[in-house]
Specification:
Largest sheet: 7 strands, mixed
CATH topology: Aminopeptidase
Number of domains: 1
Oligomer: single chain
Strand content: 25-35%
Number of helices: 5
CATH class: Alpha Beta
Distance between the termini: 33 Å
Strand order of the largest sheet: 1-2-3-4-5-7-6
Radius of gyration: 16 Å
Helix content: 25-40%
CATH superfamily: Gcn5-related N-acetyltransferase (GNAT)
Structural class: alpha+beta
Shape: globular
């Protein structure tokens, strides 16, 4: 059975939040995020996302199981930590559409779902209107980090193919607990952007 990918908005997002929380914990536990997530944190974070005007959640289903999800919302509706570097750079937050996480189980990668996530989020931004750019961020880790897998392949080439590029100087700081740490630490998050 092929993977079904659909875009959800408004109240249709709420029923998939528990599945999205579990996916985020599973996928972000791996390199490079090393996120030691909890359902309690996820519920709070995702409730704020779901309440954002203009939010979209793209989900991938294999039968009845949600195996992947990708979120986005207007930057003006998102976390202050992410908006701050754009404000400092003189950007108009009202014109930036923030693409949040794209999480997909390893068992379902390589089947064309990831490009669909990007296309659907950008299509939603264009449908809403008024956005000049789409952006997302990724964690920056040192190359000699002890938990970096030897076979890790960064997604930079794929993101470049989608039309995104890193924006020099637009870096946020976001805290979470790594799987090898006893408490939360701050992490630099480099933004990538493309013109819509």
């Amino acid at each position: 059975m092929p993977i079904e990918v659909v875009s959800l908005t408004g109240d249709d997002i709420k029923p998939v939040l528990p599945a999205l929380a579990k996916l985020r914990i599973i996928v972000f536990r791996d390199w490079p995020y090393l996120y030691d997530g909890t359902i309690a944190y996820e519920e709070t974070y995702l409730a704020k996302f779901a309440a954002a005007k203009g939010a979209v959640c793209v989900i991938a289903r294999d039968g009845d199981e949600i195996v992947g999800a990708s979120t986005a919302a207007p930057m003006i509706e998102h976390a202050d930590e992410f908006a701050e570097p754009f404000e400092k750079a003189g950007c108009d937050l009202n014109k930036i559409f923030y693409c949040g996480e794209s999480v997909l189980l390893k068992s379902h990668r390589g089947q064309g779902v990831y490009p669909d996530f990007f296309a659907r989020r950008e299509a939603h931004a264009r449908k809403l209107g008024g956005f000049t750019h789409a952006t997302f961020c990724r964690v920056v880790r040192p190359n000699d980090h002890p938990l970096k897998p030897a076979d890790y392949r960064p997604l930079d080439g794929i993101w470049t193919k989608f039309g995104y590029a890193p924006v020099e100087g637009i870096v946020a700081s976001y805290a979470w607990k790594d799987i090898d740490q006893g408490q939360e630490t701050e992490h630099p998050m480099q933004f990538w952007m493309k013109a819509l």
